[in-house]
């Protein structure tokens, strides 16, 4: 109900619909060349209507009303079959709908007094808030592998580097709408991805970028948020597009059926047990892909935040088609206060650095590192604690490298400048901010706002594209009112 009041209050400040990229995006203006460097058939359709931002006053709003339910919860979770198909090539004509029988099915027209008067259709969505009773599973779950051999890393000095000046940011423009209807990727037509968020990127192999998204819906999608049918906790796309000035085209998505993006990390979808599983970062070491994730217990905690079961690591040995959640590489959320629930992991110099915050978007930032060949071995992690790398005390020993509030980290190592970049949502400054440092532990520069709520009132995310340069920072932005993802460009000097 608080969400409804907030939306109504904003009407006075910002109502109506805006054209995407209207402030500077050449991809939306129709003038410059909109050619895309991805595979044939990828990229935008020239006859699609212009992408627009949804009004902050939604046409339809489902108000979740939780009710208590006691339920047996089997442990381990039952194993569900994994179905994958080879992604067929896209039609040569980007405007061709590859599956009109699936994506062009009309929905029943809106009826009732609200639609007649042009008012939001508000409905109650009664959802169970579960109190789980653990029970023994049926025995069809996966067999646990042997645990890693315990490691005993020594304590090492890790002094702070001198602080850098705050980044100098010039114009920040919206390049293109990346997902949903009228996006440069037409994901609603090609993969039944009508609404999604995040857009976490890493180089999965030379010349290819993987893009992981959060909760995703298809048919009957209606923002704000992920309202609609065909809910998947996450999906994964791939891109070889190097010309980001007019948008980032997707060559393919991991699919489980014709024109349907697959959920790559399963979840129980039981509120207050495990409602969903959300990717937080990704990286590749050799042929193996890694994905950090958070197991969300419930969204019904502090408004706008989340409560996790644990942060964890999954891996893929088949190019991202199928994933395994490692049973030992998990950081439990003890008393709801544990760090490293929402993490950004970056390989550099023989180590993988793990930047992490507690659940919610309000916590401080901690740091750990692990040798590249020990990523799944929790005992091999060293935590930065007051000038040292130490395993003593585990994750609880980590001292903050930055104070909060910080949410949804994205970290990149810029090899050309030997410099670290970090973006995150700073809820105190109501903006996505950028910092830089000469070392992962800091000292980190003062933050510089990239984009704030004055332009996009319900923004979040801010995930850096790995192929950004010293003069251009590309990042993915999500908005709750659109519940889709947009490519942004920031000029750096």
Description:
This protein has 493 residues and is mainly β. It has a domain of 336 residues: Glycosyl hydrolase domain, family 43 (Tachylectin-2, Chain A). It contains five helices and 28 strands. Strands 5, 17, 18, 19, 20, 21, 22, 23, 24 and 25 form a ten-stranded antiparallel beta sheet that branches. It has a four-stranded antiparallel beta sheet with strand order 6-28-27-26. Strands 7-8-9-10 form a four-stranded antiparallel beta sheet, with no helix packed on it. The longest helix has 9 residues. It is globular. The N terminus is likely disordered. Pfam families: DUF4185. Keywords: Signal.
How is this structure best summarized?
The chain has 493 residues and is mostly beta strands. This is DUF4185 domain-containing protein.
CATH fold-level name of the domain at 157-492: Tachylectin-2, Chain A
The CATH superfamily of the domain at 157-492 appears as Glycosyl hydrolase domain, family 43
Mean pLDDT: 90
Structural class from helices and strands? mainly beta
Q: What does the secondary structure layout of this molecule look like, with pairings?
A:
Layout: H1 2-10, E1 18-19, H2 26-29, E2 52-53, E3 60-75, H3 100-103, H4 113-117, E4 121-136, E5 156-157, E6 169-177, H5 187-190, E7 198-205, E8 208-213, E9 235-239, E10 252-253, E11 255-257, E12 260-261, E13 276-285, E14 288-298, E15 307-316, E16 324-332, E17 342-348, E18 351-357, E19 363-371, E20 382-385, E21 388-390, E22 402-414, E23 419-426, E24 431-437, E25 448-452, E26 459-464, E27 472-479, E28 484-492
Parallel strand pairs: 3-4
Antiparallel strand pairs: 1-2, 5-21, 6-28, 7-8, 8-9, 9-10, 11-12, 13-14, 14-15, 15-16, 17-18, 18-19, 19-20, 19-22, 20-21, 22-23, 23-24, 24-25, 26-27, 27-28
